[in-house]
Amino acid sequence: MGLWYLLWMVEDPTPGPTLAPSSEGRSLSDEASTRAPEVRRRLLGFYDAERRDLPWRGEEDPYRVWVSEIMLQQTRVETVIPYYKEWMERFPDLESLASAEEDEVLRMWQGLGYYSRARNLLGAARLVRETYRGEIPSSASGLRALPGVGEYTAGAVASIAYGEVVPAVDGNVRRVFSRLFDLPEPSAADLRLLAQALVDPVRPGDFNQALMELGAVTCTPGSPDCPSCPLVGLCLARSRGTQGERPLGKNRKPTPESEMVVVVPVAGEDGTHRFLLRKRPPTGLLAGMWEFPSADLSNGVRPIDAALALALELGLGKGSIGLGAVPHVFSHLKVLYHPFLFPGEAGKGGGPTGRWLTLEEIGRVPVPVAQGKILDAALERVDAIFSSSENTEPS
């Protein structure tokens, strides 16, 4: 518990009045307006004293704020930090990003997931350079015109980088408001109303970050740390004992599952191993990334039989080595890959989107996480594929 909190308790030892819920005659707007001065004071005090030291904190460069907010979408802070640092080393400003090739941008994003965010960043950077003379729009409404920028991101960038008095409501803020006002299922309209009424007119960026920080470190899902919360005396859910139930959980549908067979063609001419990869289409899942040839696995078909059929289409050798199943979970899909290593001849079987690449070349193109795991497994057996003693089809 920080020093700021102890000082606040000395200044204000009582929890303060518990305001009536809207069902007793007060509107949410009235609730928010009444609480606003105290909520702002406590939250900004909490933020000034307890905020985490993050590489994008204190930034006013709209480009850097924008990149951090895009990276943080549905991604943990701990995961983002190294990506953000490496990104800024390679693309320190909008011009360097706008001038980059998509393959390099996706490679820098490799492993961070939700790759459409990287493609949208690149597209938006080029749009800003060509349409806005390199100046990122300074208002939330202007930012919304950029690819990949929604209401939350626009509000966050506009308030942090430009000081516009606009709210920014993400999942953390939704949870804080749901508990603060004891709302089981707050609507988007309710959240906008509350956020607009509460945002600090002098320090809107810091206030929005304070709300997000509170939701990330204190007002967490499941078991919030209420005793150390700066808003504990103002929280309706806490006073009623419903904080663990707010907001109500969403009924999630089971994640679909699928299986795929993957063929890993390898050629070993001149002592240099080359692997055949294909570039995925420019739209859809993992758009623009590079992967090994693959196909959906039909029910009842053995993985090796499907692999042999695909290898025949590619004109590969008959020998193969199973590499073991590789599971991977996307945001909306679970996939079980069945990879097999096959000998091939460099330059053949690639098709219009395929290329035979050395390991060094593979390191320069964007490869999805699961494909990287398959490559690692292949490297452990690559010499064996050319050995007559192991160059046999598994049963």
What composes the largest sheet? 8 strands, mixed
* Poorly predicted sequence stretches spanning 5 or more consecutive residues: 1-24, 388-395
Count of the domains: 2
Label the CATH architecture of the largest domain.
Answer: Orthogonal Bundle
Mean pLDDT over all positions: 90
Class by helix and strand content? alpha+beta
Number of strands: 8
- Give the distance, in angstroms, between the N- and C-terminal Cα atoms: 61 Å
Rounded to an integer, what's the Rg over CA atoms?
26 Å
Helix and strand run:
HHHHHHHHHHHHHEEEEHEEEEHH
In DSSP terms (H or I, runs of 4 or more residues), the helix count works out at: 16
Which CATH top level class of the largest domain fits?
Answer: Mainly Alpha
What coarse outline follows from CA principal-axis ratios? elongated
The name of the CATH superfamily of the largest domain reads Hypothetical protein, domain 2
> Approximately how much beta-strand content do the residues carry?
5-15%
Helices and strands in order:
Blueprint: H1 3-11, H2 28-50, H3 62-72, H4 77-90, H5 94-98, H6 102-109, H7 116-131, H8 140-143, H9 151-162, H10 171-180, H11 188-198, H12 204-217, H13 236-240, E1 257-267, E2 274-279, E3 290-291, E4 294-296, H14 303-314, E5 321-322, E6 326-329, E7 334-343, E8 354-358, H15 359-362, H16 369-381
Parallel strand pairs: 1-7
Antiparallel strand pairs: 1-2, 1-4, 2-3, 2-8, 5-7, 6-7
